[in-house]
């Protein structure tokens, strides 16, 4: 099976590419290296020393004997190159990770809002238009986000993509309908994934395209069995206030003796998944495509939910770190419950990797090993959702900063 | 009241700008003249001879003594100029017509799909981001489309934007929810207006922006009291297969002895509004803004519904024209019913201009007057929704065409 991975240099795309390659896919990575370039912009790189793509692929070949091809294409901008790639390579599937994926980054300024919308929407629409123009029956697998649903419900478990509702007709008759779950995104980034959903629904309907959308929770962990094979294969680890995800950030903060920065009351409940499960889920999605003419197949790619302050207190207990309850830079509900269905992946055989001390300490070990590479000034979240919010900087850190 | 009209050179934007100017608004038109440039691309211009913007505005001043300013800005591309305009002019409101608005044009090719998505989404998001960055409390009024709803319902009248539904919780409790009406767009163009809706919902929530979205039916008619004041003020009239709207196309076809091209069975039921009501509705929307913190105010801007074949048969009866039932170039249901609420505009005092012979003959008169300007080869709709659809060309026209 030949699979193109758009965004195959990123935090999820890289380990997914290796996992698919190991399990027999012929993999072509497409990436414009935008994530590395954003490191330059933010002056905050991966805590782990990630190798250049050429070294990564050479190491993979050396260690496993398998080849992965690489093409540097900006799929949001260079439609001609993308189309030509589909026409030449005739892939069975395309996995689409090629989007700006950080909520705080998307809220930093007008420029960042506009870049995120322009990049993400055009990347998706270019891919869809190119698949139609190619005339090929290519299965598209896209990384969505749990954040499309929003984090409040009317008291039911969040279903997988589609919600059963009843409407009342003018004659008073009650009619059942299955609708795309009404979205309530919490940032410009999350909103772009709600736009993606409507693009997918349209192309599935008009062009009978086979599309799978994976609504993923917050990813934690760093390495997978494949990225551990050689240090040149190491995955990226983001610890900064824009790209670092909450659980990994707490573990890194514990490792470098920084207070664990909990936004607001920490009452936010979120969905989580370990990076080793991410790569397995994508493989399962590729092996179980929808049929032509089906609506978009939507799966919730998460394995458990946790309240943010519970995670902080757990890690504080394990590590002795201090918890700092800081101003919430986001405009969001202080507290929410979250119950999510994930039966579709469980039915496909996923055995969830859940939160346990062993896996937590693995992340802490990675963080400790590379702690000298960290710039602690990048740890607090400083991107605010509106002018009314304030950066999430602990008092002791604020006092130590130059005015 | 100072009002900026984005897209003020177009079919709806131009008469709206004049109507607002006449009724006391200080109007600034922003347009990149893209519609005139698309005339060049399609080799199909307005049936009516529209004057260049400079002549239009000079005539308006000559006839009424009122000044309308004009700025040539591509709002989808030139964010800096748009922001600077808001900061300098400090408008009370912005009316946003600056989108590619033809469904068939949006389906002509990959390029046209990509242009429509890129242009429409970035125009809207640039405007939203610029209003936030300006820090001003500007009311945004946007021209949406009835097509966001799709043309099938579960048997109830289409509400204005929001649908009441019931969901059942895990405990079996029934809970009422008011949700954005689930969308079902029929073309890439219509889909972009469903993307706009999600952008608006997000900025209304995160930034307390005051936004009104007008879901307009198919516009018919040509001139308004203002555009009739001087021939240099004449409105555009599109008769070609890409930009011509169905009722105006039938009237023009009757005027030039072309068969009335009905797609498929003509069983499609659509919503309609006369151009004089369009401009009144926008004025009413500007005078009745939502409050800060309100969700997006959505109004259905239409006054009646008709089945397409009924319109064709009516015009055939009045004019003696022949009706040609041709292949439908669109992928859509052959037949649909449509019932739509429009109480909000009626409550604001709109007195609908409905279909009547006098108004129909006014359009026919305009078409007859300028019939020598028509290129009849541009009349059939040739843009097909997929490779499976065929152009809507009547047999007698097809036979006369060069192979």
Descriptive report:
- The structure is a homodimer of 403-residue chains.
- In chain A, 37% of the residues lie in helices and 17% in strands.
- The first copy, chain A, contains 13 helices and 14 strands.
- Chain A has helices at residues 13-22, 34-42, 53-64, 79-89, 103-106, 110-134, 188-207, 246-255, 275-287, 308-319, 343-347, 357-369, 395-400, and strands at residues 2-6, 26-30, 69-71, 93-96, 139-145, 162-168, 174-180, 211-216, 218-220, 260-263, 269-274, 297-301, 304-307, 323-326.
- The longest helix of chain A is centred in the N-terminal third of the chain and has 25 residues, at 110-134.
- In chain A, helix 8 (246-255) packs across helix 12.
- In chain A, strand 1 (2-6), helix 1 (13-22) and strand 2 form a beta-alpha-beta unit.
- Chain A is an alpha/beta fold and 403 residues long.
- In chain A, the strands form four sheets. A seven-stranded parallel β-sheet of chain A has the order 3-2-1-4-5-8-12, sandwiched between helices. In chain A, strands 9-11-13 form a three-stranded mixed β-sheet.
- The interface between A and B is large, with 51 and 51 residues.
Offer a concise description of the structure.
Two copies of one chain form a homodimer. The first copy, chain A, is of the alpha/beta class. Chain A has helices at 13-22, 34-42, 53-64, 79-89, 103-106, 110-134, 188-207, 246-255, 275-287, 308-319, 343-347, 357-369, 395-400; strands at residues 2-6, 26-30, 69-71, 93-96, 139-145, 162-168, 174-180, 211-216, 218-220, 260-263, 269-274, 297-301, 304-307, 323-326.
């Amino acid at each position: 099976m030949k699979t193109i991975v758009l965004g195959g240099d990123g935090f999820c795309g890289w380990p997914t590419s290796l996992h698919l390659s190991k399990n027999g896919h012929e993999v072509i990575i497409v990436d414009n290296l935008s994530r590395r370039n954003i490191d330059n912009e933010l002056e905050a790189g991966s805590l782990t020393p990630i190798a250049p793509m050429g070294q990564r692929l050479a190491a993979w070949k050396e260690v496993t004997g398998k080849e992965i091809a690489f093409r540097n294409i900006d799929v949001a901008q260079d439609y001609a190159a993308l189309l030509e790639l589909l026409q030449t390579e005739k892939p069975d599937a395309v996995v689409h990770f090629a989007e700006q994926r950080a909520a705080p980054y998307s809220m930093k300024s007008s420029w960042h809002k506009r870049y995120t919308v322009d990049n993400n929407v055009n990347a998706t629409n270019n891919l869809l238009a190119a698949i139609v123009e190619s005339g090929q029956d290519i299965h598209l697998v896209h990384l969505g986000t749990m954040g499309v649903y929003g984090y409040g419900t009317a008291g039911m478990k969040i279903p997988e993509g589609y919600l059963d509702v009843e409407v009342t007709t003018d004659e008073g008759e009650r009619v059942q309908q299955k609708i795309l779950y009404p979205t309530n995104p919490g940032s410009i980034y999350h909103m772009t994934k709600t736009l993606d959903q409507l693009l997918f629904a349209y192309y599935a309907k008009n062009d009978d395209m086979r599309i799978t959308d994976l609504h993923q929770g917050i990813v934690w962990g760093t390495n997978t069995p494949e990225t551990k094979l050689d240090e040149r294969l190491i995955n990226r680890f983001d610890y900064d206030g824009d790209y670092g995800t909450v659980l990994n950030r707490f573990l890194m903060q514990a490792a470098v003796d920084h207070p664990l920065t909990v936004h607001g009351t920490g009452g936010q409940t979120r969905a989580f998944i370990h990076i080793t499960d991410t790569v397995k889920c994508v493989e399962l999605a590729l092996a179980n495509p929808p049929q032509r003419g089906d609506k978009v197949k939507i799966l919730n790619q998460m394995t458990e939910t946790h309240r943010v302050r519970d995670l902080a207190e757990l890690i504080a207990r394990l590590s002795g770190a201090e918890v700092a309850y800081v101003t919430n830079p986001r405009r969001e509900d202080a507290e929410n419950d979250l119950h999510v269905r994930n039966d579709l992946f469980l039915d496909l055989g996923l055995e969830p990797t859940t939160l346990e001390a062993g896996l937590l300490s693995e992340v802490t070990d990675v963080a400790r090993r590379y702690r000298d590479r960290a710039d602690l000034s990048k740890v607090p979240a400083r991107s605010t959702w509106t002018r009314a919010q304030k950066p999430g900087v602990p008092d002791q850190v604020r006092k130590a900063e130059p005015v």
